[in-house]
């Protein structure tokens, strides 16, 4: 039995175009041999070797393809290539030609881009080509298949491949692409269907799909994602995939042509009986009954119904192109089947009340959701009009979300339709499109139907997919049964409503706290904040204990990153501000997590601890609270504790321990001394100076200043203060004594020890300074005497050994006024300059550097004034600057130094050492002593010296020839003691 619905629908219109006469006139008496379509052309070939190209405007272009006839042709759907097979001469193999319809020669005929003679002379039956233009196959009557691979338009020298002979006439072929590189060739014969894997390079393996075959033109390849290779038999249409046999569609009749158009299967078959719907397309036929008539049927495979059928005589081929179907008769007459638009199709279905078919068609055509809803609505209205209310509700349910619910509800407001209305409202809630009014209406429907069980099942044990306004449901149930309202609120996690019902209707405060404790932290915080006033008013102790448990979770390791969703103690402090003891008791629970507290929370805690301490009369209890506060300050992190705020609180409550701790912790010892002195606690102030005087010595000065102006200061403590000031040299003696003189409460007996020590030290210092002055005066006199000798007396150089190598001096030699003598080569090796003594250079540089440094320091006025302000003995600092000549002119001092020293004109001014060089005339023109002109040499003593032509001063110096030998006084040599 066929599962197709055999009905005739007028989905196509036949158009007998007047331009189709041109085709018949063009072809004339020639017999049409083959047809094809694609790429904007209808191709008709005749047995005279002509090819007729028909455009969309029915313009016919004819060109000769062969001299004899055209046997078969195929036009690629998405390419301009036309493939034909025909003969130019009789009794020869047919020739395959490929035409490029876009390229024309001078006569405007298509250009043949390939011409290949077939390898077999047998009669050919089928021709097919792949859309990639790389595969082509030709089938013969003897069951042989010739496969061509490569570019159809260029590869003219490729050798065709002979596939396995099937020993039966090839009736149909088609190429199927599974992926980019995988191609299959479907082949049908009169009794079988098989496929070849043509992607293989060496061989093309064959797979037999079925032992059922078809006639010529009764096979077609359907392209698309779910494509099939279809063949037509008298009993049915069979489909095949690359792997196996596919679905089967039972369609009776003797099939002549099978074609595919869009989503339709076109079947041309012979009529068994004469039809009254036969359409005559040939007016030259005299006896219509003698002419065979055939029927053309358009079958919608996906929706499983026949959309169009009619009878046309002498159908030769059906060509799909330009979005229409063209039916060609053997006489060259062409008829067009134009598909109606979708809305017209739906109108036809609506008139026949075939709404189910209309829905399937609309879904197949990817109709928008709004249009589908309209079809469902019309279908529901049709069923409602027929009295099928349950069927109408089923269709209306499909419109939920798009169609306004009131449109349906108004139809079923009558009490006799209450069950249908309940069904619709239930579906409305299930889809989540219901509002409060719909929920109320549904509950009223349950009430009118006395369906308490259904109501209970709906609100308590409902399907999880059903959704409704739970708040409205709870409100309705709360009026009649608070128990059901509580159950509904608990089931749907309406925790706030659940607590509200417990507090307002049941007055179960402890039970409400127990319920909140079971919730998550975030939910507990939200609800307890909402109803905290009620809990505090009725069960304050239980509420505080619950808050302790709730807030403790915010300090656990697991929830430390969830502080935004956790209960913070500061969130509930404002409720306990009136009871400091209760608040302190609440916060004592979190004392182990002080470092995780906020600054405001810590300040509040300390403040209320101070309040409790202030109001406490028990001394032991006060001491305990005092220790607790100090422990808090010691254990908490400095980043959390605001010491300034705590100091203000401690001063306000006169809490001495905290004040002292904060000053000591922040190293504010001066403020701590002032605080002790403000309390007249002189002993603590002295102890503070003893403890921190080494860190901050000015503490002794601060307490000394206070002692000078405070009449209540104990004079007995002054002795220790003065002793520390003197020991650390914090104040000058003059300032100290002056301050003591101005004091009205201190007499000389209180400072007798200090004065005795001061004067004794001054006496020792004076004696020491006097000895130093005497020494400097004596040294100054010696230096002045040395300078005078250098200016007025001759200097005798009598060094016999070199100061560098300690060997006997030999000429040439270099002598300095510092009594250092050198060989000339030693001097040149060790000296940094020609004017300085190598042994004295380092010392002279140090002296000059000191003088220059002093000259630079005299410009640093800020440094001098800064030292002067910090110094306790300004007179000593100024004396030091005078002693270092920092107030003198450096240039003048250097000039004075240069004048006071006898120097050679060749030497620079600062140099105090003058070298005298004994060298031959040829070595140095400066300071050299020539033997030939020596005024102290005697002529008669020349024989006492052995003359050497190479070294005139080779022999040792003759002491007897020194004219100043007896005049020189060694005691007057200022450098006699120098090394």
What's the helix and strand layout?
Blueprint: E1 12-15, H1 20-27, E2 32-38, E3 41-46, E4 50-54, E5 60-64, E6 69-75, E7 81-87, E8 95-104, E9 110-117, E10 124-129, E11 135-140, E12 145-149, E13 161-162, E14 170-179, E15 182-189, E16 193-197, E17 206-210, E18 219-221, E19 229-232, E20 237-240, E21 245-249, E22 254-261, E23 264-270, E24 278-279, E25 293-300, E26 305-313, E27 315-321, E28 324-329, E29 334-339, H2 342-351, H3 355-364, H4 369-386, H5 389-397, H6 405-409, H7 418-430, H8 436-448, H9 452-459, H10 470-480, H11 482-491, H12 495-506, H13 509-518, H14 521-538, H15 540-552, H16 580-588, H17 599-615, H18 619-635, H19 643-652, H20 656-665, H21 669-678, H22 682-692, H23 698-709, H24 718-727, H25 733-742, H26 752-792, E30 813-816, E31 821-823, H27 824-830, H28 838-857, H29 861-870, H30 874-883, H31 890-899, E32 915-918
Parallel strand pairs: 24-26
Antiparallel strand pairs: 1-29, 2-3, 3-4, 4-5, 6-7, 7-8, 8-9, 10-11, 11-12, 12-13, 14-15, 15-16, 16-17, 18-19, 19-20, 20-21, 22-23, 23-25, 25-26, 27-28, 28-29, 30-31, 30-32
Helix pairs in contact: 2-3, 3-4, 4-5, 5-7, 7-8, 10-11, 11-12, 12-13, 12-14, 13-14, 14-15, 16-17, 17-18, 17-19, 18-20, 19-20, 20-21, 21-22, 21-23, 23-24
Subcellular location: Late endosome membrane; Lysosome
Region (Disordered): 933-979
Domain RING-type: 802-841
